[in-house]
Amino acid sequence: MMKWLVVLAALVAFAECLHKMPLIKGKSARQTLKEKGLWEEYRRKHPYNPAAKFYSSGTESMTNDADLSYYGTISIGTPPQSFSVIFDTGSSNLWVPSVYCNSSACENHNQFNPSQSSTFQSDDESLSIQYGTGSMTGLLGSDTVQVGGISVAKQVFGLSETEASFMTYMEADGILGLAFQSIASDNVVPVFNNMITQGLVSEPIFSVYLSGNSEQGSEVVFGGTDSTHYTGTITWIPLSSATYWQINMDSVTINGQTVACSGGCQAIIDTGTSQIVGPTTDINNLNSWVGASTDQSGDAIVNCQNIPSMPDVTFTLNGNAFTVPASAYVSQSSSGCMTGFGQGGTTQLWILGDVFIREYYAVFNAQSQNIGLAKSA
Fold first, then answer.
1. In the prediction, which pLDDT does 232 show?
2. Which residues contact 138 (CB under 8 A, 6 or more apart)?
3. Dihedral (C-alpha) 271, 223, 148, 102: value to the nearest 10 degrees?
4. What is the model's pTM?
5. Residue 166: partners with Cβ closer than 8 Å, 6 or more residues away
């Protein structure tokens, strides 16, 4: 009997080490802009350039990704002030709007007020983050940040003073970056690094589950994995570069034919990009293989009735095949159907965004510097 009690106590203790951060699948900027009748004009002014955040040197770049829709709530300060943020494995800084900001994007979002937090410390350093459509500028400060039941002390974060107009139409207030410190603006220590060094997680890993259509169920788990979110075993893939969560991709194939990434390429697993993005020529080829036609704004349109007969697309990563069916790579809306394969310009980098992560539960190990992927449950 005693032995079982010890095992039970160990299991209870283990369960308490998993810190779950629920994500809501909210409205995307595209939906909001369409409802206001502003989408066509906005898209002409701000072409989709998801690869923008991977070009920059020194400053952390992002893009006007109009289809991002997964947000989680964190709090900063004492007493806590709440913010919804995008958990972004493609960047490394945490920032939120502040009361010092007078951009239109700050007016309809929560703003951090340092004077109302007894634990806030000013840093007197400025921060600048480049977007595909402008930038965020602001100040650095440090305070207690609460994420999924974890309280991170003295976390340095950005307080925005100006924000790109694009942020006006996003539900999220700010961004919480989960990539490596090597690409952090101002070399700020990222939130997850602090969780590890402050002994707040039992393992140096976090994992991401993105649900398909429902608003509920998506989550980031800090300190472990949630086995209810995947089936089968986790396949581990070593990072090719510990900057972003970057890995080697061998090829993109349809029915055994290589249609993109011929001879190999680099790919980033990125929760902060909604689509699967690649070099324009590769993406055009991929879209034509699945029967899509690209409209003037770059969306790859398909007939919704064709989805059942459209082919699977296989992404081979480090010798392991990960297949994405048409039901996963085609999005349906009231205005029709389009593929989730987006053009990334001339860069040879691929971004495996939410379209991919919805199919494959993703585990990020900061210590052994690898990524685990398993079929989503």
1. 97
2. 95, 98, 100, 101, 126, 127, 158, 159, 160, 161, 162
3. -50
4. 0.91
5. 29, 46, 64, 105, 131, 133, 134
Sign of CA dihedral 113, 116, 118, 122: positive
Tokens read off for 344: 């990334």
How many CA atoms are closer than 13 Å to the CA of 329, on its beta-carbon side?
Answer: 30
Active site residue 270: yes
Q: Is 143 a catalytic residue?
A: no
Three-state DSSP class for residue 280: helix
Whether omega for the bond prior to residue 22 falls within 30 degrees of 0, making it cis, is no
**Which residues, 6 or more positions from 152, have their beta carbon under 8 angstroms from its beta carbon?**
144, 145, 146, 191, 194, 195, 198, 200
Report pLDDT for 207.
Answer: 97
Residue 122, amino acid = S
Q: How confident is the model at residue 110 (pLDDT cuts 50, 70, 90)?
A: very high
Q: Which of 65, 67, 88, 173 is catalytic?
A: 88
* Euclidean distance between CA atoms 322 and 307, whole angstroms: 19
Q: How confident is the model at residue 128 (pLDDT cuts 50, 70, 90)?
A: confident
Which residue in 65, 143, 270, 354 is the catalytic one? 270
φ, ψ for residue 154, nearest 5 deg: 50, 45
For 221, the token pair is: 């788990």
Q: For residue 3, give the H/E element and its range.
A: helix 2-17
